[in-house]
Amino acid sequence: MPTGGKSLFPDFMATTAPVDVKELTSSFIFVVDVPGLRNTDVKVQIENDTILKISGERKRDLDGHDMDIKYVRVERPAGKFMRKFNLPSHVNLDTISAACQDGILTIVVPKVPAPEPHRPRTFDIQVGSMTMGNS
């Protein structure tokens, strides 16, 4: 049994944040479980205009005053987490929003409206010879 609250795994592997990704007609919705975290414990960033990065840290609730604390059982994960998602090219990076409530982080990534398909253009054909515009 681990003592002193030390993890058998490095900090970056100590915890993860499960994510659901939903696609709607107008946006992508990322729903992230971050129980016990405040909005100041989590960062939402865009890297290279193509990657959504969600990171944060869940800290162990140590007093700091009582060095005689010995954990008998450690089941709640603590440590840093990071998730990255490639975004498609048809999203609006300037209007991304995020909200955290009751341990659920919701990130809305709006889509850019799809351009209208190009319609073939039809030209009238004249009868006779064509002048080239050279004098």
From TrEMBL:
Which family would the database say this protein is a member of? Belongs to the small heat shock protein (HSP20) family.
Q: Tell me which species this is from.
A: Ceratopteris richardii
Annotated SHSP domain ranges read 10-128
Q: Does the keyword Protein biosynthesis apply?
A: no
Could you tell me the keywords of this UniProt record? Stress response
Q: What is this protein called?
A: SHSP domain-containing protein
Task: Tell me the InterPro entries matching this sequence.
Answer: A-crystallin/Hsp20_dom (IPR002068), HSP20-like_chaperone (IPR008978), Small_HSP (IPR031107)
Q: Which Pfam families match?
A: HSP20
PROSITE patterns noted in UniProt = SHSP (PS01031)
Q: Which domain of life is it from?
A: Eukaryota
